[in-house]
Design goal:
Number of strands: 0
Distance between the termini: 32 Å
Radius of gyration: 15 Å
Helix content: over 70%
Number of domains: 1
Order of helices and strands: HHHHHH
Strand content: under 5%
Shape: elongated
Length: 98
């Protein structure tokens, strides 16, 4: 069953945020975690929000981090494609930092 463009964008934005948070979590250092209470709170929120993904990240290590980074990049590409058009999407895709 087809979905509307609005629903599609909503679902892609959800996944973009999910993969952004998982990538952020994998990059946060324990030193930052220990020194900044707001970081600790964010880590706890993400861990509670995506427990299965966090478990996979622990089990699969670098592979999981690479998958999450690629998924984030893909979500950003598709959102740009829908919202900005093909030319801008192609330009931005080459420079996407996750």
């Amino acid at each position: 069953m087809k979905v509307s463009e609005k629903t599609l964008i909503k679902k892609i934005r959800f996944l973009e945020n999910k993969y952004f948070e998982l990538v952020w979590l994998s990059r946060i250092s324990s030193q930052t975690f220990d020194k900044d209470p707001s970081v600790k709170k964010k880590v706890e929120q993400i861990t509670k929000k995506y427990p299965k993904d966090i478990q996979l990240q622990k089990e699969l290590g670098d592979w999981s981090c690479g998958f999450n980074s690629g998924a984030l990049s893909g979500m950003r590409f598709v959102l740009d494609l829908i919202l900005e058009g093909e030319e801008i999407s192609e330009q931005n895709y080459l420079n996407m930092d996750s």
